[in-house]
Every structure is written in structure tokens, then in C-alpha cells.
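PROTEIN DESIGN WORKSHEET
SECTION A - STRUCTURE
LENGTH: 255
C-ALPHA CELLS:
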């Protein structure tokens, strides 16, 4: 019969450690409790990133093997409906493999290949990313730039622009958003303003896994910030109560 007055901590005595092959670290009176084991482990972020990269790589290998098997099956099956089904399976397998590759890439340290470029060209790239959006998002473009030049990785900047516009479209109130590009105090500032119907707390934004939902894991803004930091730029987001809008700024140093 269980004694309810006894502690629920399970104590492992030195003799038990010997059975586990642990001798060198034994100290007199050493004990490990279940409470110790249940505490959350403090794992360095680099180890988490390594795990994600390796695990996604392993799963992708499995998916690639399944894709090869379905290719063989497609050759063996003569029925038209079955062939179509195999085709859909292959498409899904490849889609999953691409998703895993994209997830793994998020945990790589950004390695920008920066080059001097007119700031106005970056604004044009932002406009092109907006034109490629399937969701209709009305944008007011304000160009106040001169001949300023900046040094950035253009592909990374394009990825950040796409992330910001995708979020703006997904959480749009239906009102137009404004993008302004200007130079001030030796810096180029790209500013996105999104009207909001209620106040927003942005304190946790940009942290990994700050929000999770189907198809979203709270990694987009975190990745954008890392890309900007690698480019020597700054990404700032805050809610402006007097204008009832979310303001996002990308700040770059002028060459």
C-alpha cells in the first residue's frame, strides 16, 4: 500500500549509480530527485538549431526515398485512376520536402553577400514584391529618396520585403497601407505603416516561436531581423497609438 505521507521524490543512491556505470562523478550523499529530472533543460540555441537542421535533413531523405518508390509504382500501375493518385502522392511528398528544406534554411546563420546599390532600387524591388502578391493589398508609395546608396544583400532584402508584405496582407483591415522611403541623418529609412483597429503589443515580436498556427511557426519576423542584423541594418516595429497603426522601419546606413 502506498504511504501518502512519504515524499514523492525518488532518491537514487550511490549504489544505483554504480549499476548505471557512473562512478567517477559520485560524491558522498549524492542524490538525484525526480523533481530535478522534471525541470526544463537549458539547451543552447545552437544545439536546437543543429537538431532542427539534422532532423529535417533525415526526414527529407525519407521523403525522397518514398518519392522514388512512387516513381516505380507509377511505372507498374496501368490503371488511369491509380496513376493519377500516385501522381498526387508524389506532388505532396515533394511539397513536404520543400517545406522541410525551407524550415532548415531558417536555422542557418545568414551569410549576406553585400554590394553597393542605389536605395531607390530597393524601393523598386519592394514594389515588385507587392505586385507578385496574390492577395490584393492596396499600397500608397511615397519616394522621398535622392541618390543615396547603401550596401546590402539584395536577395535578403527582397525576402524581408516579402515577409512584411505577406503579413500586412494577411492581417489587413482592408484599408490601404503606406510605404515611405526617405533619407535622414546619414540613414535610409524604409517605413511601412499599417492601419489597425486595436492596439498591438509588439514586445514579443521577432522572437522564435512567439506564435504558432497551421502553416506558421513564429519564425518569419525572427528570420527577417537576423537577416537585417547580418546586413548591418535595423528592423524596428511598434504600435503608434496616435495614428492607430503598426509602424515597421528598416534602417540602413548611407554609404
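SECTION B - SEQUENCE
RESIDUE ASSIGNMENT:
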Amino acid at each position: 500500500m502506498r504511504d501518502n505521507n512519504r515524499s514523492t521524490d525518488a532518491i537514487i543512491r550511490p549504489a544505483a549509480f554504480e549499476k548505471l556505470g557512473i562512478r567517477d562523478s559520485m560524491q558522498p550523499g549524492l542524490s538525484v530527485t525526480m523533481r530535478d529530472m522534471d525541470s526544463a533543460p537549458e539547451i543552447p540555441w545552437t544545439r536546437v538549431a543543429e537538431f532542427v537542421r539534422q532532423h529535417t535533413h533525415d526526414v527529407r531523405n525519407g521523403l525522397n526515398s518514398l518519392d522514388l518508390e512512387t516513381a516505380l509504382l507509377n511505372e507498374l500501375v496501368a490503371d488511369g485512376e491509380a496513376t493519377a493518385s500516385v501522381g498526387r502522392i508524389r506532388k505532396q511528398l515533394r511539397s513536404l520536402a520543400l517545406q522541410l528544406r525551407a524550415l532548415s534554411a531558417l536555422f542557418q546563420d545568414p551569410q549576406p553577400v553585400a554590394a553597393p546599390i542605389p536605395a531607390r532600387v530597393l524601393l523598386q524591388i519592394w514594389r515588385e514584391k507587392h505586385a507578385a502578391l496574390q492577395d490584393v493589398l492596396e499600397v500608397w508609395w511615397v519616394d522621398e529618396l535622392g541618390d543615396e546608396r547603401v550596401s546590402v544583400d539584395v536577395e535578403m532584402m527582397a525576402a524581408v520585403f516579402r515577409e512584411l508584405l505577406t503579413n500586412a496582407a494577411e492581417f489587413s483591415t482592408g484599408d490601404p497601407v503606406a510605404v515611405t522611403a526617405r533619407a535622414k541623418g546619414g540613414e535610409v529609412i524604409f517605413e511601412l505603416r499599417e492601419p489597425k483597429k486595436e492596439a498591438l503589443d509588439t514586445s514579443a515580436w521577432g522572437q522564435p516561436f512567439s506564435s504558432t498556427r497551421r502553416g506558421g511557426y513564429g519564425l518569419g519576423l525572427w528570420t527577417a531581423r537576423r537577416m537585417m542584423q547580418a546586413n548591418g541594418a535595423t528592423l524596428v516595429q511598434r504600435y503608434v497609438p496616435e495614428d492607430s497603426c503598426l509602424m515597421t522601419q528598416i534602417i540602413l546606413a548611407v554609404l
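SECTION C - NOTES
Confidence is low (pLDDT under 50) at residues 1-14, 19-37.
Helices lie at 14-19, 34-38, 45-76, 80-106, 119-131, 154-170, 220-230.
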